[in-house]
Write a structure and sequence with these properties.
This protein is an alpha+beta fold. The protein has 2 domains: about 160 residues, Ribosomal Protein S5, domain 2, CATH 3.30.230.10; about 110 residues, GHMP kinase, C-terminal domain (Alpha-Beta Plaits, 2-Layer Sandwich). About 30% of the residues lie in helices and about 30% in strands. It contains 9 helices and 10 strands. Strands 1, 2, 3, 4, 5 and 6 form a 6-stranded mixed beta sheet that branches. A 4-stranded antiparallel beta sheet has the order 8-9-7-10, covered by helices on one side. β3, α1 and β4 form a beta-alpha-beta unit. It is globular and about 55 Å long.
Length: about 290
């Protein structure tokens, strides 16, 4: 076991496409999505210690042991008793930037970072194939964050394949003054929805370098969340006034992103929405 400390970025993500398909026997829905990490996010630091502790996440969960960072460390330790001592500890420090209930994957990204830090600092020497099942038990988005970059995802979001690089947009992200509970959001989906995943994926593989293609992006949560939350609808409408290529909800919300070709237009949009949002930033795709 190593004793040095280490800090890693916990990038956020946006869903460039999100189609919610049939309900599964386990209660989850099958989905089809195109994830991509963006260069805004949290930072997680860790060093091996006598116990598992976390600072910097106060107010995110009722108690530190309920945070996904601690849950990730405990689950990894329990899953590989032959690789690490049962009482191995880690001192985590989280610099939290991404908001909760935002559809940007902050908690899932934190969990994936915790798995990677523990694997390294506990000298477990686990490969990605061994980490992925642990990540899937923590949450549907967590496996993606072990990869990062762009990924096509199906199943609950855990069946992943790499996607080619998108057009290099300037991305403005805004999170309005509301929070969306994911479980509740699934109950608000329109009962009749398009099934376009196969066609979209084929088109993306062909036209991902063409900025005009991105006007076809879709998210099944976009329309129902805009109906239920005036804050989301108003923010999206304001962002569209700056003529982005596309404005869309990320995940189940509440964050909205706009894709811009010109940095100047993106900067004007960001300046306008800052006061309307509990979080706002300009970002780029991370490969």
């Amino acid at each position: 076991m190593t004793t040095q400390s280490e800090t890693v970025p916990c990038f956020g993500k946006i869903n460039l496409f999100l189609e919610i398909q049939d309900r599964r026997p386990d209660g989850y829905h099958n989905l089809a999505t195109l994830f991509h990490t963006v260069d805004c996010g949290d930072r997680l630091s860790a060093e091996a210690a006598e116990t598992l502790t976390l600072t910097g996440a106060e107010g995110i969960t009722a108690a530190p042991e309920d945070n996904l960072v601690i849950k990730a460390a405990k689950l990894l330790r329990e899953s590989f008793p032959d690789r690490v001592k049962a009482d191995a500890g880690m001192r985590f420090s989280l610099a939290k930037i991404l908001p909760t209930g935002a559809g940007l994957g902050g908690g899932s990204s934190n969990a994936a970072a915790a798995l990677q830090l523990c694997n390294h600092l506990w000298d477990m020497r686990l490969g990605q194939a061994e980490l992925l099942p642990v990540a899937a038990r923590l949450g549907a988005d967590v496996p993606f964050f072990l990869y990062g970059g762009g990924c096509f995802a199906t199943g609950k979001g855990e069946i992943l394949s790499p996607a080619p690089s998108p057009y290099p947009f300037h991305i403005v992200i805004g999170t309005p003054q509301c929070r969306v509970e994911t479980g509740w959001a699934y109950g608000q989906l329109d009962p009749v929805r398009k099934q376009e995943w196969a066609r979209f994926k084929a088109l993306y593989l062909t036209y991902c370098e063409d900025w005009e293609f991105y006007q076809v992006l879709r998210n099944d949560f976009d329309a129902p969340m805009r109906r239920h939350f005036p804050e989301i609808d108003n923010l999206a409408n304001r962002m569209r006034e700056f003529s982005p290529v596309k404005t869309l909800l990320s995940g189940s919300g509440a964050s909205v992103f706009s894709l811009f070709r010109e940095r100047g237009a993106a900067e004007k949009c960001l300046a306008e929405i800052r006061t309307r949002c509990r979080f706002a930033c300009m970002a780029a795709f991370v490969e």
